[in-house]
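Contributing: when you submit paired examples, paste them exactly as shown. First protein:
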Amino acid sequence: MDIEFISLIFTILFGFAGVFGFLIAIFQKVGENSEKIMKIRAEVREEFAMCNLHCKKGGIKNE
């Protein structure tokens, strides 16, 4: 086994490790953002429910 072949194998292995590490970091960031989006959607849904309840009680007349 000559040194060029061994260095080629290590280069390929470390390249794959770098690509997979990068993909894992991207998926973690996407997961964090989706949690934030779900939280905001829940807050908006809650506010809409409160407005709807207020309208049904006669605070604002629906057209």
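Second protein:
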Amino acid sequence: MSPTYSRELKKLQHFNYDESANEKFRTTSRIFMAHPSNHRVRNGGFLRFLSILVGLILVVYVWRPSPSSSGRSHKPKKKFKALVSCPECSCDCPQSDSFTLPSGIFNVSSSGCTSEDPEMNEELKKDTITLLSEEISLQQNVTRDILDHALELTMDAKQMASFHRREAQKCYVRVDTCETARERAEAALLKESKLTLLWEERARNFGWRD
């Protein structure tokens, strides 16, 4: 076989291969163009599924508790437990040391663990009636203080009023005295005027001239 013939044969095979590839591409294009809605539906469903998945991931990321917040949230519980929990009493106290409120309203018995604190025992022995009595007595003391202060102010006002009343009476007496003195002075002046006229008349009778 000559080289020229072999080259021509290879060109012919390559041309046939290109023709078959082009034919397959055209067939695939026809199929895709004939059913475009199926591809769109599949693409739309995939995009919807992808958006839902992304939304769920965001929700879980936003609402999940962070380690710092979870650590902070557990700390108050520990503190609360530490405040509420009380160490066990190691004392061995007889039953006779416990006491009960005598009022009958509350029946609270205290163990010997609080017997070492007299203030606590005194507060526990108080019942509602005692507390109300103390509150009433306190209110009475406050009211009494207010009344005493008001009485003091009233007494001061009365003293000032009596003082001004006495001063006014003194003024009235002095005015009366002045008025009496004025009347006496007028009477004396009138008497002196009459005597002056009498002596003037006698002097003229004896030849006195101005």
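If you have annotations for the second protein, write them as plain sentences, like these:
Helices lie at 3-34, 36-63, 67-84, 118-125, 128-205.
The chain has three domains: 3-61, 94-125, 127-210.
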